[in-house]
Structure prediction request, 244 residues.
Amino acid sequence: MAVSDQPMAPKFWAIIPAAGVGRRMNVDIPKQYLEIRGKTLIEHTLERLIDFPTLEKIVVVLGAGDEYARDIDLLDHQKILLAEGGKERSHSVMNGMEALKSHALPEDWVLVHDAARPCIRRADLDWLVECLKDHEVGGLLGTPVRDTMKRTGPDDSVIETVERCSLWHAFTPQMFRFAILEKALATAVRNQVPITDEASAIEYAGFKPMMVEGHTDNIKVTSGPDLALASLHIEQQSKLIESL
Prediction:
């Protein structure tokens, strides 16, 4: 029997940068360890990614000296790999990719997801993979801007109304080919380009990521009121699953 020369199907990996301290929350512990509905934010997030069978491994990038991680039993899950965080998010993601180097191939996919987005739906993960699986570069979840957008000056007075057509709110996961993301991040960091998300590094490298529309409840917890809203979304999602 002839050996097939069919290329191997790309595999899917995930990185969760969780080395931040969440200064905007104005609390004494990193925000990923704040609790809603009896679990920390990172536990809610990990549960959803661990239950996504498409993923081979998930790298959780923790801050050096993180004393709270020892209480998270899910970090001992067989799907989880650990890495140490860096100075900025981009450095942490790069460290996470380094942890995957002995596992992932250049054409494999890497999904980078915020630890503080605990409401990510399985349907959105499925849709992201379905939309991007044949894409050369990758893309990210988001939602189109629906509100009227204003640009202001230094004194917060309105300068202009910004045309909202084709504007999107950028969410995570952001999913890119391993080799492309690795090179894009390294180039941006080397050139000291401000990187607010992985897509911005991809854009700086000259590529055009694809936007994939997801649900608006995939919120990022960045302030106190977001905790209550995330709790409400998780409750509503649970009721929806129970009704199916």
